[in-house]
Design brief:
With 127 residues, the chain is α+β, with helices and mostly antiparallel strands. It has one domain (26-125). The protein is built from five helices and four strands, in the order αααβααβββ. A two-stranded antiparallel ribbon has the order 1-2. A hairpin with a 2-residue loop joins β3 and β4 (118-125). The mean pLDDT is 84.
């Protein structure tokens, strides 16, 4: 990469940050400081590990989460605010792109069947 391209990219990065900073501040806590306080290190320094849960096991995972939350009075179930959560990977939301990450919001839920005529609500996107 030549020097002119490097200068252009640096200027473009500054322009992008200034454009983002000029937006009206959104409500809610920033995601990265909340996770940093919980983890004790910056989230971007840790690997992101994902595990898919089969649809028929979501109710079991929901019950496990409820049990863990009940056992810890300080536990918080957090969601991610904004539409970015539908279009970006979790690692990108934590600032992996160099842009500021999202904000804490309410978790998303979905309804799953647990029997022929019975359903339950489970977290579909949350921390």
């Amino acid at each position: 990469m030549d020097e002119r391209m490097r200068a252009f990219l640096n200027d473009f990065t500054v322009l992008s940050r200034l454009a983002h900073e000029s937006l009206e501040p959104a409500d809610g806590e920033l995601t990265v400081p909340v996770l940093t306080a919980h983890l004790g290190v910056a989230p971007a320094t840790l690997p992101v590990v994902t595990e898919s849960i089969a649809q028929h096991r979501l109710a079991d995972a929901g019950q496990l989460l409820d049990h863990l939350m009940a056992a810890d009075r300080g536990a918080r179930l957090l969601g991610l605010a904004g539409q970015e959560r539908h279009h970006m990977e979790f690692s990108d939301l934590l600032g992996g792109t160099g842009m500021p990450a999202g904000r804490i919001g309410e978790p998303d839920y979905e309804t799953v069947s647990i029997g022929p005529d019975e359903e339950t609500r489970v977290v579909s996107c949350g921390l």
